[in-house]
Amino acid sequence: MSQKGKGWLLVVAALAGIWLIRHGSGAELTPPQPAAAQAFAGGPELQPGAPLAEPLKPSAPVRIRIPSIRVDAPMMRLGLGADGSLDVPPADNRNVVGWYRDGTPPGSKGSAIVAGHVDDATGPSVFYNLGTLQKGNKVEVVRQDGRTAVFSLDAVEVYENKNFPDERVYGASPYASLRLITCGGGFSRTTGYRGNVVAYAHLTGVR
Length: 207
Description:
By secondary structure, the protein is mainly beta. The chain has helices at 3-9, 11-15, 166-170, and strands at 61-66, 71-78, 97-100, 110-115, 119-120, 123-124, 138-143, 148-160, 176-188, 192-206. The longest helix has 7 residues, at 3-9.
């Protein structure tokens, strides 16, 4: 794996185990997890005949919308920290999503990596309901060039940290792909979230 790939992989550690929702009794509320039916049926490949849109030229994203879970959020650039891990959006802004600025911009050929918080000490954050997405749901990314890249969900899966499939999530794609990542996989009082929820999508339209 390239050094860049290793840097992307470390986003898992950066996003895991820092945010927690508490209510009156102090018990934890865990965010929704993907249903088994939303996983890939036979590996992370598109089904024959799946609609594909022609990839766009690179342009930075400025906003993301996921109507089915009421996400409408600005996007910011994320770089790598001194330790090689992917930076994360500011913890005090629950409605902002980040994308890896040195990777593929959403809508262009390749795998675009997007990350958002699931919750914090005060309540749900932008990707709290990522685990409720279903195959076929739409994700819209507004770009600086004025185009809106429209993606269709292929699968939503949850992974334990120790079994995170870095090649599946961060590997190269022959078409315009999108990977949405947040915390998930259950919660531990001592170590935080045990894993990550990842939603996979591919470009099916442009407006």
